């Protein structure tokens, strides 16, 4: 931590200061800097929980040291002593000792002091690699890499560079769960340097101020540390308002709203806050300022009685449930994995919770001190709930906040136990989250809506004071003490046994109290709206589940799939921690594939039912939702024609859409009603407060400059249903995709694998008798699944691809040779922007069709498939040999290929030699689909392994065309294996950006971008291996504009999804480049560049609308503006990318979306000559919380700091 010279004129900083200031700048200045400057007293020391974390971290480091000593021998690890004094002289001596150890070539150096006189610290381990370079290794007890730990590695690597010591490009975190997190330091060091420069600048400014930090200074605050909590209370800060966030605080302070009282007195919404959000915060602040009730309880208001009335009727079988979890639990092997160590619930003897005394609640606690016991607890919990549901069909499990359900989702996948049961419970509304009910229906004068803050409202004489175990952190600390005492008791210590028993009882008592508190809260909420709290004598009718068909989680097919999955898992090591080889991993992937489509659908259905229960601002999957600010009826209910089978109404809904919204034109959707029509109340789902309305089609989406969008929706109800007058309050995208056809092909693969005991592979032996034995099923998909290097009958792929990259072979000829040689397996082609992936692939298909190959073409969408088919016809394959089944929604426009009337005709077409059929995965997975000699998967960087398994089930050979470095494959569900990863990405080595030659081709030459523009794209996404064909790209010319990437910094504040300031800068760029002389290529005549020669890419629809309006006003109507998804495959002489967001705090969908290197790659590479990157410099100021975002920011910094 920071220290100062005696005269306080200079300072010494360490990586821990970067960590501290990134966590909370105010807290760092208040607790670390000012006390050392003599401006403030030293704060109290850390509590027991943090001390436990520190002790566990030290133990993890010590175990790592002992392991390295055992591996390297007594002379293999040099342990360096700490500096005699943390002074410039003491540090200089320690640095000299470290330098000596490193220059002597020590295999491992422990606790080397790396320092440049201002900044430095002790590196945990420096490990010498074979080339003599040292890898920086830091040990962290955490199970996952953290941003601050990665910054420490970057700091030490940069300091090694300053010392002239060779260091490895990558650094590693050795984590508490036994894994290593490896990072590319070239992407992290730029972030470290920027953060260090900001740190030193802020510290010098603070020293020059000559006074302690003040709460109103321009410094970042976390709002949660002890220093912030004290200041928030002292200054009556708006963060006292329950639910207020730091981003909201920033926007309020810009309007002069600094205190709780200021907020309560506001009369209009400040810039950047919606009317709904502002009103909620203002009313919360006003209530918190009211006097307590006569009994001392906080004031409260019922703001939506329907939310409280929507609670289920009490039932004698109701349970009140609470987990106790230890995020720091360490396995016997020393790995920190986390553990749910106590599963507690209470019930009452007769089900009447309101009349049951606190002491009479029956408590059950399932303890788990090991991973095996955790699995057993899960099994027992599932058994108990299923049995109780059988006895009490209308029972509910009440809990407070989302942790219990979130943990159960994680545990069922981890242990492979109860997935179907949990899915059934969630769909049936078994769990009731009282936090969601409180937030929807109640407002209370409390500083937060944690259950502890609400207990004064309803616990009465049973309300617990602050003694003993009263918080989750207390529980974890006591659990660690219990575990240590239990270990000592196992060694025969009777006193330890008594202490373990006492500690365990205290934890159980805490858990029991929380369970009873949940029961009391339920009863109190019912009482607020006059609901009966005792179970009814007659059970209420079971609520009607929505008419949309959802697969029964316990159907025969699901049960059979689960049994088949377990049979496959029996073929791989049972130990969950045992490493799997590629063949075993392939079996595990196939097992996971059996549940892939079911798991993918789960989040959609969970979100579906959640929207009827939870407050709208807490709805899952925000990209699917729109909350209505305004609703207008364009056409009232009517029957469009005499043949129509539905009544229809057209409404316009105006509201904010999330970036990457799923509510696009043509999307299927559902409307949501707060004002439930009386005729629909019997359709409400379990404890719902809203009605999920009729099926709806999104006919039009118009984006407005104010960041909102207007959606035209067509609602439809059956003719025999009375239409309703009420208007929807929201809508959400909802498409049900049938997967049974795909699922059946995965079952085929699984059954074959089970029968063989291993993943099938082609029999290429000379003794294989093809005449007598029936033809074996295709095995190409299994080669992909197990990441096998394709077996070849001719030259190996590596030799063919080497000739192609060297120019010895034409790319098309090379691909044809590779496919012939690898027949029966796969060939992958990674094609970066402008490298001619479709050209090479289509011409190779043409050559093979001429040899009689039957070829299927598939992809993620009909558009992808049809684009490839059109290319095949353009290059000379007769249209009658290229076909695609005509879809039900296809129009009658003429297509270049043959439109086949039905599936039977399509399959007959494909069965002919030398014919091509295009279709989606469903086409080729159909039970009647014939085998194909070659299946081409276009855009395979967006095509999942599970889809590949289904689509390529009858493909002898598979050609994967795509680029995982462009727009990525997206999955929704949580899967035990990465079967949702893109097929092409799966074949690449982890952490590598370029496909290895033994698996196929990396097209390393772009014909689109000038070499100066290719270079940053190559560094960003292709490890520097992408180059331009300068004989083509560099003979283009735009007069007066340098080729390449041009950062355009624009300072602005408070913008999230649209920036008028950046829109103005875009207009300036268009104005600057249009009219200049543009030469499109060698031999082409120059012409003036027009506004149609410029494309603008924006990440958000709001910015698309803002830029569109600005360009139109400036007379540049020919310039196309859109999101990156619309521009894949497009190009223009000049591209402009506008980022819109002012800072990381304002970024919609997170930095991983806005600064995604995949999206940056696609956006920048639209330009032939130049790309202008319009951005706010503050985007790179703040540190993210997600480690992946750290490298993302570093990559972005390398683009804009050129």
From TrEMBL:
Keywords: ATP-binding, Helicase, Hydrolase, Nucleotide-binding. It comes from the Bacteria. Transmembrane segments: none annotated. InterPro entries: Coronavir_polyprotein_1ab, DNA2/NAM7-like_C, P-loop_NTPase, RecB_nuclease_TM0106_put, SF1_C_Upf1, YprB_RNase_H-like_dom. Residues 534-554 are annotated as: Disordered. GO terms for molecular function: 5'-3' DNA helicase activity; ATP binding; hydrolase activity. Residues 319-525 form the YprB ribonuclease H-like domain. This is Uncharacterized protein. Residues 998-1174 form the DNA2/NAM7 helicase-like C-terminal domain.
């Amino acid at each position: 931590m920071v220290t100062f010279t005696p005269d306080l004129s200079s300072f010494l900083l360490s990586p821990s200061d970067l960590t501290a200031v990134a966590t909370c700048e105010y807290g760092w200045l208040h607790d670390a800097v000012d006390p050392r400057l003599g401006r403030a007293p030293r704060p109290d020391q850390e509590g027991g929980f943090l001390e436990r974390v520190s002790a566990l971290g030290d133990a993890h480091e010590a175990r790592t040291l002992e392991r390295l000593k055992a591996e390297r021998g007594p002379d293999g690890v040099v342990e360096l002593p700490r500096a005699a004094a943390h002074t410039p002289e003491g540090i200089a001596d320690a640095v000299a000792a470290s330098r000596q150890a490193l220059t002597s070539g020590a295999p491992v150096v422990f606790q080397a002091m790396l320092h440049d006189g201002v900044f430095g610290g002790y590196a945990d381990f420096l490990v010498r690699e074979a080339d003599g370079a040292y890898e920086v290794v830091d040990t962290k007890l955490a199970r996952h890499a953290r941003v601050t730990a990665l910054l420490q590695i970057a700091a030490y690597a940069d300091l090694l560079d300053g010392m002239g010591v060779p260091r490895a490009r990558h650094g590693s975190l050795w984590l508490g769960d036994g894994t290593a997190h490896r990072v590319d330091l070239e992407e992290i060091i730029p972030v470290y340097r920027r953060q260090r420069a900001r740190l030193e600048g802020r510290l010098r400014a603070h020293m020059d101020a000559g006074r302690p930090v003040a709460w109103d200074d321009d410094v970042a605050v976390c709002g949660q540390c002890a220093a912030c909590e004290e200041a928030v209370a002292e200054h009556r800060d708006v963060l006292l308002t329950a639910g207020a966030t730091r981003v909201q605080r920033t926007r309020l302070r810009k309007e002069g709203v600094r205190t709780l009282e200021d907020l309560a007195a506001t009369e209009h919404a400040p810039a950047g806050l919606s009317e709904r959000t502002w009103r909620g915060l203002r009313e919360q602040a006003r209530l918190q300022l009211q006097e307590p009730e006569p009994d001392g309880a906080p004031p409260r208001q019922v703001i939506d009685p329907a939310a409280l009335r929507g609670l289920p009727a009490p039932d004698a079988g109701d349970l009140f449930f609470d987990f106790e979890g230890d995020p720091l639990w360490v396995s016997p092997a020393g790995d920190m994995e986390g553990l749910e160590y106590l599963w507690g619930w209470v019930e009452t003897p007769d089900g009447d919770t309101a009349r049951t005394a606190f002491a009479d609640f029956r408590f059950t606690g399932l303890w788990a001190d090991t991973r095996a016991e955790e699995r057993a607890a899960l099994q027992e919990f599932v058994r108990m709930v299923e049995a109780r549901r059988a006895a009490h069909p209308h029972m509910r499990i009440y809990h407070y906040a989302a942790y219990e359900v979130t943990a159960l989702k994680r545990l069922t996948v981890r242990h492979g136990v109860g997935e179907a049961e949990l899915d059934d419970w969630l769909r049936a509304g078994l769990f009731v989250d009282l936090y969601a009910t409180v937030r929807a229906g109640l407002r209370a004068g409390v500083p937060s809506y944690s259950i502890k803050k609400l207990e004064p409202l309803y616990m009465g004489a049973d309300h617990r004071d602050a003694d003993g175990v009263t918080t989750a952190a207390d529980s974890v600390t006591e659990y660690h003490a219990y575990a240590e005492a239990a270990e000592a008791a196992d060694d025969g210590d009777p006193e330890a046994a008594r202490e373990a028993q006492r500690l365990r009882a205290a934890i159980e008592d805490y858990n029991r109290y929380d369970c009873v508190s949940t029961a009391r809260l339920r009863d109190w909420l019912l009482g607020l709206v006059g609901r009966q709290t005792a179970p009814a004598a007659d059970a209420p009718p079971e609520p009607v589940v929505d008419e949309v068909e959802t697969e029964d989680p316990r159907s025969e097919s699901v049960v059979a799939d689960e049994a088949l999955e377990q049979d496959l898992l029996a073929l791989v090591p049972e130990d969950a921690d045992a490493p799997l080889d590629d063949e075993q991993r392939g079996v595990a992937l196939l097992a996971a594939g059996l549940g892939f489509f079911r798991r993918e659908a789960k989040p959609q259905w969970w979100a579906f039912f959640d929207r009827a229960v939870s407050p709208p601002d807490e709805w899952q999957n925000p990209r699917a939702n729109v909350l209505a600010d305004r609703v207008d009826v364009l056409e009232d209910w009517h029957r469009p024609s005499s043949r129509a089978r539905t009544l229809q109404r057209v409404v316009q809904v105006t509201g904010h859409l999330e970036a990457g919204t799923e509510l696009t034109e043509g999307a299927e959707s559902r409307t949501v009603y707060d004002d439930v029509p009386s005729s629909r109340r019997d359709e409400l789902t379990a404890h719902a407060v809203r009605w999920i309305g009729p099926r709806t089609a999104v006919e039009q989406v118009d984006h407005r400059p104010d960041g909102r969008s207007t959606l035209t929706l067509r609602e439809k109800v059956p003719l025999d249903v009375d239409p309703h007058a009420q208007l929807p309050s929201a809508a959400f995208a909802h498409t049900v995709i049938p997967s049974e056809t795909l699922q059946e092909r995965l079952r085929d693969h699984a059954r074959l694998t089970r029968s063989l005991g291993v993943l099938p592979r082609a029999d290429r032996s000379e003794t294989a008798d093809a005449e007598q034995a029936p033809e074996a099923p295709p095995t190409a998909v299994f080669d992909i699944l197990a990441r096998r290097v394709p077996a070849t009958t001719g030259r190996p792929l590596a030799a063919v691809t080497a000739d192609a990259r060297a120019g010895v072979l034409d790319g098309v000829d090379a691909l044809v040779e590779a496919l012939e040689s690898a027949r029966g397996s796969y060939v992958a082609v990674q094609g970066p922007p402008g490298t001619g992936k479709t050209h090479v692939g289509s011409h190779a298909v043409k050559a093979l069709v001429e040899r009689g190959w039957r070829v299927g073409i598939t992809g993620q969408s009909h558009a992808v498939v049809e684009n490839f088919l059109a290319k095949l016809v353009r290059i000379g394959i007769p249209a009658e040999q290229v076909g695609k089944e005509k879809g039900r929604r296809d129009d009658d426009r003429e297509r270049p290929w043959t439109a086949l009337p039905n599936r039977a005709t399509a399959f007959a077409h494909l069965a002919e030699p030398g014919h091509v059929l295009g279709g989606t995965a469903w086409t080729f997975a159909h039970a009647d689909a014939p085998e194909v000699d070659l299946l081409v998967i276009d855009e395979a960087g967006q095509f999942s392994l599970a889809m590949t398994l289904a689509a390529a089930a009858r493909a002898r050979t598979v050609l994967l065309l795509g680029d995982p470095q462009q727009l990525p494959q997206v999955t929704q569900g949580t899967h035990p294996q990465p079967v949702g990863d893109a097929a092409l990405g799966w074949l690449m080595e982890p952490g590598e950006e370029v496909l290895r030659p033994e698996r196929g081709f990396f097209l390393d030459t772009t014909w689109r971008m000038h070499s100066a523009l290719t270079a940053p794209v190559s560094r960003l996404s292709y490890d520097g291996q992408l180059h331009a064909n300068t004989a083509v790209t560099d003979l283009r010319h735009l007069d007066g504009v340098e080729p390449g990437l041009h950062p355009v910094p624009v300072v602005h504040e408070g913008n999230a999804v649209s920036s008028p300031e950046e829109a103005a800068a875009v207009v300036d760029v268009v104005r600057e480049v249009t009219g200049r002389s543009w030469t499109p290529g060698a031999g082409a005549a120059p012409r003036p560049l027009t506004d149609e020669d410029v494309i603008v890419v924006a990440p958000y629809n709001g910015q698309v609308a803002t830029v569109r309006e600005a360009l139109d006003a400036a007379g540049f109507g020919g310039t196309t503006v859109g999101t990156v998804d619309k521009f894949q495959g497009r190009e223009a002489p000049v591209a402009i990318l506008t980022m819109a967001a002012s800072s990381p705090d304002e970024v919609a969908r997170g930095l991983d979306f806005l600064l995604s290197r995949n999206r940056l790659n696609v956006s920048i590479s639209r330009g032939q000559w130049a790309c202008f990157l319009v951005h706010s410099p503050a985007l790179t100021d703040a540190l993210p919380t997600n480690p992946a975002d750290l490298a993302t920011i570093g990559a972005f910094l390398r683009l804009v700091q050129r």
